[in-house]
From TrEMBL:
This is Aldehyde dehydrogenase. The active site is at 214. Residues 12-431 form the Aldehyde dehydrogenase domain. Coiled coil: none annotated. InterPro entries: Ald_DH/histidinol_DH, Ald_DH_C, Ald_DH_CS_CYS, Ald_DH_CS_GLU, Ald_DH_N, Aldehyde_DH_dom, Aldehyde_DH_NAD(P). Belongs to the aldehyde dehydrogenase family. Keywords: Oxidoreductase. SUPFAM superfamilies: ALDH-like. The lineage of its organism: Bacteria, Pseudomonadati, Bacteroidota, Chitinophagia, Chitinophagales.
Amino acid sequence: MSNLPGIGNIYKAQQSYFESGATRPYAFRKAQLQLLKKAIKKHEQEILDALYRDLRKHAVEAYGSEVGFMYEEINHALAHLKTWMEPEEVTSPLMYYPSNSRVYKEPLGLTLIIAPWNYPFQLLMGPLVGAICGGNCAVLKPSELAPFTAVVTEKLIKDTFDPKYITVLQGDGGVVIPEAMQYRFDHVFFTGSIPVGKKIMEMAVPHLTPVTLELGGKSPCLVDEKVNLKVAAKRIVWGKYWNAGQTCVAPDYVLVHKNVKAALVDELKAAITEFYGSDPAQSEDYGRIINTKRYETLCKYLASGKVVFGGATDEAQRYIGPTILEEVAWTDPVMQEEIFGPILPVIAYDDLPHAVQLIRQHPYPLALYVFTKSKRTEKILLEQVRFGGGCINNTLVHLANPELPFGGAGYSGMGNYHGIYGFETFTHRKGVMKTGTWLDVPVKYPPFKNKLKLLKMMAK
């Protein structure tokens, strides 16, 4: 069925292991989460080193957004898994008395988790936590574009888990993923670009395999005229240039009220200099672009509008400095797709209806950020803009709360995860009604005769 070495054997082994029931007990799932946490701790320095080599992530940034993030996710799951797994009692219709009804949270089976290169460790391990919590087996496909992290991840998984339970597939995603998806997985979890997400969905259709797609989009950041501009600027700069802008929920562009646009741009410039110095290329805290192809794509965006800050490039280092653009037209290339890099267009708006109209030109962003003191502004944007998730007076931090669902809407994806939402993504809610035999109400049986009146009374 497939030319990919071992995929057939892996699939059969995982099928057999899952059907044995080994993954179902709470004690097993808890133990696997503990093993995963222990393994991350054991390989922690290797992971941090790999992230530096792939993306030049500073250890603080890599720990906060990848390794430490996973400790928080696992700890949260360990604290709540038993409760999540418990069947839920629901009411039963009177006409089926004596009955009781429960919702059981059943494992799905075999899962395929496909990760991107921008957060190559966390975006593979995060969904894996959900798969483990749900009682599933998992095949993991790390991104080949972050090769050092992919190698460490495979080593970690191989040292910790039996491949019939959890294993890693390496190689070119354009080859490996289509061949793997010739087999019917019970769920496919993909994080990446919209075009590839569409292909994943197409490959899932023949098997009617459900998919979770965590995609992207142009996430707007709105700043109204009555905010603390210094604080807003620092939080925007932090969120935009974290990982050199290679974050799916980074502020893609800023919409700022025309009365404070100049002042905000000044504060953005000041914040960049404060964080990364007068020459960010020399800063140990500023990352690099993943590869030459992405670097070249981003460099083309610099021709859009007017560079009012930054714009420095170095192909040998794959370096693009923190950049601010003004005088950007909505028809410019930089506004046609997600930037996914350290280039920030700043655009003025006249009033709130105008801002909402502008945002709707790029519908269904993965994130929305609003800096305002106005409850009315907050309410209008939350109600009138469809988006995956976001923050009021901050950026990115909604990801760090395991109590919140993370996922897209429309073009930015489908399904969500983190915490209980990851558990629910990787489980099937099975409804079961159990009826006692000590009483058998005959109203439902033929002959019906004059039972309609009684049936209507019971239905009330």
